[in-house]
Structure formats: C-alpha cells, structure tokens
Amino acid sequence: MAVSAFENVKRFFIRLGIGLMPYFPLPWEPYRKALVRDSEKRYASGRWDYMNDIAEAHRYSIIVGCCEYFTPPERRVLDVGCGDGILQQRLRYSGYVGVDMNAAAISRAQARGASGATFVVADAAQGVQADGQFDVIVFNESLYYIRDPAAVFARCRQSLSPQGIMVVCMFRTYLARQLWKKLRAFGMEELTTVSISNELGFSSTLRVYANSRLTARAADTR
Where are the domains of the chain? Predict the structure, then answer.
C-alpha cells in the first residue's frame, strides 16, 4: 500500500508539472542541457522503451500519415533526432538518414535498421551531413535538444526538395511556443496542424510545413 500511495503522489506531481510547464518560461540553455542528460540516462536504463508502447503509437501514425499524404512512396527522409529508429520501421522510403546525438539510441537503430537506412551519431547543431535533397525532414520532439534550433531548421530546409515537407512535433511548453513563433518567421506554408494527447497526460502539437503552396495544392488533388 505504501508503494502504491507513493506512486500516486509522484504521478500527481508529474501531472501538475506537465500542466504548468506550458505557462512558465525556463532558461533555455540549462533546460536544453537537462533534457540531453535525461535522454542519455533514459536510454542507458531502458526508460525510453515506452516509446514503442501503444501510448506513443498514434503520434507516429500521424507522422506517417502526413508523410504518405503529402509525398510519394519513393520519398527520401531525414529524421533529425531519430532515437532508436522507430519512425523508419513504420514509413516507406527509398532512402532514410537518421541522426541522433545519443550513441546508445543509434546503436539500437542500426541493429533493427532496414535496407536503405543510414544512422549517424551527430549533434544536429554541428551540422547534418547528408548528400542530396530530402522529400521529408522530421523533427519529432527533438528541437528542444538542439542548440540554436532555428538555425538548424534553416540549414536543414536548404536540403528540402521543391515538393518536400518538414514535419515538426513539439510537447506543449512555454519554450515550444517561442520556437513555433521562430518557425513561422521563415514564411513557409503551413499545410496542417494536429493536436496530440496520450493517456499519460502529455500533449503535443504537430505541424507540417512546405516551401510553397504548390505542395498543398498537389495534395488536395490526390
């Protein structure tokens, strides 16, 4: 009973923190470093394994659905902050490059990676080295981990094909709201916005961007 009571109290404060986070600013660099440290500890202990659970399945399904709706099956994909490669297991592609700063995550991704998939241990802030253009560039809950995220977004955008899309998903926090404002300043066409929540109480916003209205019109005629 004592353990159950403790877990209930812990869950209460976690939910309270989740509820308050969207309304209070935090120092960006300390927050980013804390997230990076937490990510490394979680992968080392297996605590990120829940990303493969049903609670997260709908978020990946929405990302896959957006990719399939707006781009052809032979798409080339750049997944910035790919973790252990969950997205590449669910998405059709002709080429896939997954980048993550966490070596343990990349090791898992390489072990389960399919033909045509490449995984790289790298800090996106130092530059994503990839040849050619991509039809899909994904930032799935990863912009918070990157130093100068707007600059990285702009750099990756240079590798976007003319009919390509950029998919961004962020947990709802004060800092995420500031990042959304910076992304809007690029003047890209916003093709769709989706609100996502799961049973743990986490809420995220997903947006799909394109360089022009042409992609949106092409999708409407399919």
Answer: 27-220
